[in-house]
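Dear support,

I submitted the protein below through the web form. The confirmation email said the job was done, but the results page showed an empty box. After a refresh the structure appeared. I'm attaching both so you can tell me whether what I see now is the final result or a partial one.
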Amino acid sequence: MKPIDLLRFAAGAIIAHPMRSALTSLGVVIGVAAVVMMTSIGLGAQQMVTSSIGGLGSNMLIVSPGASRGAGGGFVSQGAGTGQSLSDDDAVAIGAQIENLAAVAPTVRGGAQLSAEGANWNTRVEGVTPDYLLARDLTIESGRMFDNREARQGRKVAVIGKTVASELFGEADPVGRRLRVGSVPFEIVGVLASKGQSGFGQDQDDVVLAPLQAVRSRIVGRRVRGDNVQTIYVKAATAEDLEQVQEEVTNLLRERHRIRPGGDDDFNVQNMASIMAAMTATIKTFTGLLAAVAAVSLLVGGIGIMNIMLVAVTERTREIGLRMAVGAQRSWVLFQFALEAVVLSFAGGVIGLLIGVGGALLMATLAGWPMAIASWAAPVALGFSMLVGLVFGAYPAWRAAQLDPIEALRRE
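What the results page shows now:
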């Protein structure tokens, strides 16, 4: 018998019982859809993390103060970043004494109410140096960045993000105009190119940049004392230099802050590449667990295929006996029933794949995260569904091939 004849017999048997065929494939449909949707969630989360951390800048270290202690020198920590252990001099020392650096940018930040030409807007204001643009991979769309002389003098000039420009000035060019940050007037000298939202939904264009000294003395006020800074962004020249720079920054600050060997640092140095790698690895593990749980549905679907095919063998006993009586070989019967199981499982895999892609798109739209489907999702899902059909259809096919023709014809 030709293979095409076996395929025709198998297709005829499937079409003859549409409801049973649909129920047989249902478990595989659910399993494949679940696997595709779960892996899509994991990949979407991974892209969100990559986008969010990557938006901070490449090849970068973030140096922040350690935890402050309670009043009176108590031992109650107020949380990481609440201390004031970093200063302008620390940033200057890092830039002067450590090699392979692209930029060093000390910053302070705070929230403020903006007003200009009758419009109001509340946003974050960051006191920075000109190197901040290089450290954070920012560019100027119109106007200019304030220079080192203006930064040293604490001039009241500002560079604003696209969101601030739109909210305060609409379509008009804001360069050269004035805005009030709280009660302090600033001249707008530039507008940042848009960076859009971060992976966690923060608008990166909703910001005002101004000279560090001006913001520290006039905007942030009591929250930052003297020449203290809240963060120092350190950008390495290349990604290969990042770990070496991190070690050198840590050693330099420990020396400057007179921290004894074995003592706790009063600062934190975060490596963005290491954070990204750790978070990506965690998400991949979580995605694998989700996919493994979803894959259980495929096994359940395989058991369903085996049960239904066993029922089909019982129902079609006389048909099997008649075919054998007129010369059909046992191998033909074996291949026909195995092929039916594989076709049912493959069809379920195709339908499940389509449902999984649609479900992933719907979840991404509702949740606002990136739509991501793994390149291996389709071939693996379809291949595994066929394997499930072959494995779980093997026993019913063997049972059908082992029937005795005479006994099969006697059954009613």
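Response: this is the final, complete result; the empty box was a page-load delay. Residues 272-315 form the longest helix (44 residues).
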